[in-house]
Amino acid sequence: MAAIDGHGATLVYGTAGGTPSTSFGEVISIGGPNLSRPMIETTNMGSTAREFIAGGFYDSGTVDVEIQYDPGNTGHDAMTSAITAGTEHSFKITWSDTSTASFDGFVESFGVTAEMEDRLTASMSIRTNGTLTLATA
To answer: Residue 21: CB partners within 8 Å, gap ≥ 6?
Structure first.
């Protein structure tokens, strides 16, 4: 299996249910989506070890993004507005090999950090909503 360089990954957004195409800009890191599926325990008195079946729904979890924050960046401004308005957006992550992860979601948190002798950054958490579409290069 070939390693894929994280450098060059992009994040774009758009209207929920639509095709995301507006560049977010100045992304430092992207973590997620973080898929999970609940397990239902089926262990009984006749079992010799714990037993489980997969629950019916998977969860795409959250996508955590760190950015070099620019208060004048329209993408950054749109995400802070999305929190206050409760607006859902479509998002698309494109990795450096052109594989993609597409999903709708709500901005769950957006926090700015200012440190001495460092750039202004922000951390954002996007809560995925509904189906996650993964496409390979």
So the answer is: 12, 14
Our CA dihedral for 77, 82, 83, 89, rounded to 10 degrees, sits at -130
Chain centre to alpha carbon of residue 42: 32
Domains of the chain: 10-35+60-135 (2.30.110)
- The tokens for 133 are 């579409």
pLDDT in tens, 6-19: 999 999 999 988 89
* Segments in the chain forming alpha helices (H): 74-85
CA angle 97, 109, 84 (to 5 degrees): 120
For position 1, what pLDDT does the model report?
A: 61
Distance from C-alpha of 14 to C-alpha of 20, rounded to nearest angstrom = 4
